[in-house]
Amino acid sequence: MSDDLDADTIAFAHRMFDRARDGATEELAGYVDAGLPVNLTNDKGDTLLILAAYHGHPETVAALLARGADHSRTNDRGQTALAAAVFRTNTEAVQALLDAGADPDHGTPSAVETARFFDLPDMLAALGRS
């Protein structure tokens, strides 16, 4: 976030990242519908979508995707929302991301690499790999 934002704006942004982590789908979707940038990114490069995927909230993932969240964005470590959903073995979030066009080979590590590294055969199958 920019250094020129005031404390209230920064606090509000932190609350929105918490809503993504907590799976507060309706509240977060309402803020996005009212103008909150759907690809809001924190100081680690995590988007609302990446946080929702990592914390296992497929409904929030779907709502953000429906509002135009960029599934191809990576955080500062090169991780995608799809890789996060695979790591958390969240089949619903994985499917929502794939349906939106997320690339299983994008990111470092990619979703496929994540599934192989952590020996997640069900996730490899969900990604169409073995």
From TrEMBL:
<feature type="repeat" description="ANK">
    <location>
        <begin position="77"/>
        <end position="109"/>
    </location>
</feature>
<keyword id="KW-0677">Repeat</keyword>
<dbReference type="InterPro" id="IPR036770">
    <property type="entry name" value="Ankyrin_rpt-contain_sf"/>
</dbReference>
<dbReference type="Pfam" id="PF12796">
    <property type="entry name" value="Ank_2"/>
</dbReference>
<dbReference type="InterPro" id="IPR002110">
    <property type="entry name" value="Ankyrin_rpt"/>
</dbReference>
<keyword id="KW-0040">ANK repeat</keyword>
<protein>
    <submittedName>
        <fullName>Uncharacterized protein</fullName>
    </submittedName>
</protein>
<feature type="repeat" description="ANK">
    <location>
        <begin position="44"/>
        <end position="76"/>
    </location>
</feature>
